[in-house]
Records
---
Amino acid sequence: MINILKSEFYKLKKTKHLLISIILVAVIAVLQIVLIEVLFNMLASMMDERRSQMFLAIKDALNLTGSGCLFEIGENDAFTPFVIIISALVVTNEFSCGSMKNILARGISRNYIVISKTIISAFSAVVLFIVYQVMLSITATFVSGWGDMGKSLGQFITDCLLVEVLNIILVVLLSVFASFISFTTKRVSLSIAIPLALALLLPNVIQILNSMVQMALSWLDIRYIWLPTFLLTSCNIIHTNTAWIVGITGVAEIILFTLISMLIFRKSEIK
Amino acid sequence: MDEYAITTQNLTKKYKSIPVVDNVSMNVKKGEIYGFIGKNGAGKTTTIRLLLGLTPQTSGKYMIFGSDTNINKSKIGSLIESPALYETLTAEENLIAYCKLLNVKDEKKTIKEILELVKLNNTGKKKARNFSLGMRQRLGIAIALIGNPELLILDEPINGLDPAGIKEVRDLILTLNHNKGITVLISSHILGELQKIATCYGIINNGKLVEEITSDELEQKCKSHIIISCSDAVKAMETLKNKLNLQHIDIAPNGILRVYDDIEDTAIVTRAIFEDNIDIRLVNIVRQDYEQYFIQRMGGI
């Protein structure tokens, strides 16, 4: 297991997929803050006093300050595609270049292959997330200042860590989900398109389904079955001390998708 | 059993009840270069994939170095169809990735030796995607050589190569076999090339192993022989065995008697048969070349 991980980390370093993604994610994080700032200021300057105040109020509500960015929770449409792409490349590259058969022919366990690929995908996703979050916060601090923490430093750090841990569980889940699709389809195009579509559509589908389900069974809330929608429903988790339930749900989903990947890959024919 | 690198017993692989590999029982001795011959779609690659554990068999079993359960696959190097390379990595980096995977001690020394052996030591920072077909094939073999394999399984390693590339791969296989004692199973449908290196052949047709034959036996079978068409081939064969003490005689599927023993005068043979009251219709001396032999055994063109 250690050997295959060493080999995987070496390939990750040499193929430069992660490096390129890190650069792109950093640029996007900077642009995201700068563009919002420029856009709101430009719109506000073009409007009359009342509308201008309204735009600035919306901007304040977004809380795009250095500290505010650290409390953003849940899926991010600008960042999620990178997690999915890097996970898809880590897995499907072996199938597309045919090296998976070389690895298997040397007697490496299929389970180890799935676990190592999942670890590499998750590692890449976490690295990307940290880069994204740090760049977002640094840029926001430069543009709008650090902002009001609204609590003691100790409480701020504790809450911030909690949010980031949940965010990390979320990005790991997305990467594991993308790896699962990659082990199933073995094709890079499908491994990117399917998880991307599901990551973007699934929360909406679950919300709609939940409304329908609750008309019949008011006690049943199906939003809890998928971490991103669970996070959406639990925006006040930090205050209600229920964060650990969300965390356990995420970890359970990570384990579930890894096990399904192992099961699928065990039966899979390698071309 | 220990003298064999590979043995299979009624190895069968079916796809939707259609047998692609059908009761194949093959034996590859240690130190041999085993030429695995068959037409496209005959079942060569599927057999190799079964041996490498890339696909499960429907029935039957196989043993590698006498073991069917705890097969040490790190001692098997393989190249299946096209070489599987990490395109954005250099030759050295490709090998490093596999060295780490197989926990090879003294990585640098091993890689240097292998790159020299396959003559890719001067490729520097050139990425694998920019390699010629011959270089790719040699890098594929280099990857197969990591971990000091005792058995090398090469599936169509000379496909698409130019004559110079074919010679390079051929020389490399011979060097590995002669100098390192590596057993080689090589599949191909390019008969002329296999004939230059193989010490034993397995001929596969429609998933069935038609024949296993050593290069000496093949030599024997392909040398000049007498064909005799007569009224009773079985009786004629017995006559020649008893009267002239001939050993290498068989009857072709079309009933023609074939005599492979060295005979200076065909008249001796015809006289012996004639004396046993067997009518002779035709006597001829023919020479079959290797290609003809293989093609005939592979089910014709």
---
Amino acid sequence: MSFYFAIVGTKDNPLYEAEFGTSKQGGDGVARFREEQRPMNQFIVHSSLDIIEEVQWASSTMYMKCVDRFNNLFVSCFLTAGNIKFLLLHDTKADDAIRQFFTDVYELYAKTLMNPFYEIDMKVTSIVFDSRVRGAAKKYL
Amino acid sequence: MQRQDPLQSPFVPFSPNPSLQQGTPTATAPLKHSLTASQSSNLRYSSSRKSIYDRHLNRTQRSELSKSSFAFLFGEMVQYAQKRVSGIQDLEKKSATPSFVPTHVSPAGPRHLKSLSEAIHSLTPRRLNLHGYTIGQRLLELLLWRDGRSAKRETRILGILQFITTTLYRSIFNKPADALEKSRDNEDEYMLIDNDPMVSSYISIPKEMSQLNCAAFVAGIIEAVLDGCLFPSRVTAHSVPTEQFPGKTVFLIKFDESVLEREAVL
Amino acid sequence: MGILAIMVLNKAGGLIYQRDFNEGLKKLSSNDYLVLAGTFHGVHAITSRVSPVPGSGGLEIMESEHFRMQCFQTLTGTKFLIFAQPHQPNIDVIVKRVYELYADYVMKNPFYQIEMPIRCEAFDRNLLAYIQPRQ
């Protein structure tokens, strides 16, 4: 079970990307996408942005569960107040775990924003952020 | 303020204040496994090895700030915004770009000097607005995070205006704004009234600059919150002194047409 | 309160604020007020040297049958002169409050240039609101 996580900014530009595998049930936490699958991940996630655009006006919640499907992969989305999208590409449904993961990442993103040198739509390059995201993934996914 | 042309559909991704963002999104290569390991560490750790990720976001939720300290800092910000233009060349360069066109800068002749001071004063509310803009972007995310699991994004005009009037105002000034009105003349204008904006409570504007209102700073915060929630708008601060409240300020919120179209569809 | 007038002098002895609170006062020309302020500044400096007690400050109180003048000098050299009725109590409290108003509405005003004449509408308004009800 592998996951591809991306944070997309307001101009549809990627701010952060990461791949994980599951750590539960004996998984070792390393993503196992097929080699030709990996570039497709970005495209799949990008194409789901259109759907998110339409759905976001219908619901006022932040966590939108599964917005899109592609073959056997699901795309889940968490939309923040400032229109930043957290997208997770996964092949198994695990709504609650994913919601907790998103909540953790939301907190990390809010802390990143508090940095006065970080502006909206800038790439997130902090190593601490990266390690915390991976820690959250290990905890929940 | 120059904006990118929106497409016809009301559901177009909108980017907040273009003057803050630089560059367009660039293509990224597919992710490599060793991405993070190969980046050299440019992080300078403090001696206690703590980063901003260790601070709790609710730590300063209840703390208060001395009004005098803020007043001194804000006074310096106003002076900085006034003195930013370094000379006539700089002003002309600024006025050549369409996003900063003060209406009374003339291209030639001895009228230059008089129009320079007028132009400086007409740019000051814009700069104060920009100062408040970045604060508003951060405040929006922080306030909604503090709601926790029950956080909701606002999708309607009235919802976001209520959020600004109560939650946002209360978090900054510890009191809600005094009134929220809808303009009768224009569909897209709303007015938020504050009888005594705390940021300019010690400031007296001299007569020759009577159109400047230092609450443009708060207008910038409001504009950022609206832009972040995808309600593109312009927010300006106007002073309407009354007998009882000499500092009464009206924030005029003018939404773009795309917002009205979307509101009609919903 | 029988406050008659308030004057504020800057560090160099120049008059930066003058206001009458009682209609019956004789009005001097603005030049006269400037001369008065400069004279007082000089007298204040001389009295601080001439005083037989070592280490004393300058002239603080001047009383006559018709008025009482009190001077408060701040740590930065700004002087606040209060002219009041002869038996006006609590002038100290009034002086402190005027100093507080000065620190708020004049010093926190970004459009005010230090040591220049005070043209802050908020300062005028609040000063009047403080003095007027007690006349």
